[in-house]
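Bumping with the actual sequence this time:
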Amino acid sequence: MRRGLRLQLVGLALIAFVGACDGPREDAGEQADANAGVVSSEDTIEKGPAERTGEAQDRAADSLNEAIEARADAAEDQADAVRSEADQRADALEEEARRVRATAEKKADATEDRADAIRQRQ
């Protein structure tokens, strides 16, 4: 139980760490603002217009990537459902084939018994 909680905490810490990172467009904007003298340096907490624009572009790109990933996940789920349905149908067909074979075997045995009875009458 403790190990599971520890893994969850590590996962949350990683998410927080990754979430705090600047995206590539925000970083480029930060550098552009510093180069243009809009902010005192790249290391300042203050955000210039290019950094804010880059941050918005990074968020938009992240949202687009999340939407793409969600669509891909939905397609994979659909593929899994198709496979599952096919497996169920195949299992039902295999069961039907087993019943058909068993019925045929009983009929064949009865017919062979009749053949044996015919031979014994002679």
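The tokens above came from a reply further down the thread. The mean pLDDT is 88.
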